[in-house]
Amino acid sequence: MTFTFRPVDPLNDAKLLHAWVTHPKAAFWMMQDARLEDVERAYMEIAADEHHHALFGLRGGEPVFLMEKYDPAHRELVGLYEARPGDVGMHFLTPATDTPEHGFTRAVITAVMAHLFEDPAVERVVVEPDVRNTAVHALNAAVGFVPEREIDKPEKRALLSFCTREQFEKAVTA
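Predicted structure:
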C-alpha cells in the first residue's frame, strides 16, 4: 500500500476528523464527547504549535488515517522521561470502517514510521499509548518498538516505548 501525507487543515477537515475521533473505535483518542467546534479548536491549536503537527495519510488522494508527531521535549512527555536530541513523539489513528482491510493498520504504522525516519534528524520515535490498548502494543512491537516502563500521564496510565531507526529497519525487513 502506498500512502502520501498532507497537513490537516483544521477548518476544512474538522467534519471528517470529528467523525473519526468520536467513533467508539477511537476511545483511546479521548475525544469521544467532542463537538465539531472542539475538534476544530484542538486541531487549530496543533496547527499553530511549532512542536506538534497533524497530518493525514492519503491513499489515492483521500484521507485514510491520521498521524500526529510532536517534540516530546516540549509536548506530551515533558518531565516524564529524559528526552534526547533526535526524539520525536507519534500518535496515529485509523478510522472505523464497515469493510476492514487485512493488513491495513500494520501498513499504516509502517508508513508512519518510514515517514518519520525520512527526516535524518529523527533518531528515535517515542510513543505513550494507554496501557490497556493491547492492539496498538502489538502493532508497535511489529515495527520495532521496545517498551521501557509504564508512566502516569494526567489523562492515562501509559506504556512508554521507543523505536530507533535501526530497530525499525530490522523489524520491517525481518
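Summary: The first helix runs from residue 10 to 21.
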